[in-house]
Model the fold of this input.
Amino acid sequence: MDHQFIFAPGTWIGEGRILFSSSPETIRFYMRWTVEPIENHRIIARQLIEIQGAQENILNTFTFSSISDEKFNILLENDLVGQIKGNGVLDGKTIGWEFRGHPSFEGFETSRIEENGDYMVHAEYASTSAHRTTIDARIWKKNL
Done:
């Protein structure tokens, strides 16, 4: 596996913009991913998101399991949506996952590696209330 993001322990940081369908404004955000070493054939990654103007940060915990060279299972946990299971795919350039079938949340996210090792992220999520969230960001490995 050539991807360092998600599949190797470390810290990744990033920044980007979020667009909510309920607002014409584009909002800046910052994130930090902390990826733990593989344990029991699972990878746990915590994503802390700080949205410009928001009072509280969002913490997402991702568990990646059943990992092969082409696919994996993913579990997202946070205080807003609880636990959501999804499926992921990967190839030499892209890591992607989607969440479908949850009663109040679904969507997808892709991270495409650039020549310099950074990743360009694009995600689209929707809730049952017809609110859509579009995310575009860049993440890079934090050098210690």
Observations:
- Residues 13 and 32 are 4 Å apart (CA to CA).
- The chain has a mean pLDDT of 93.
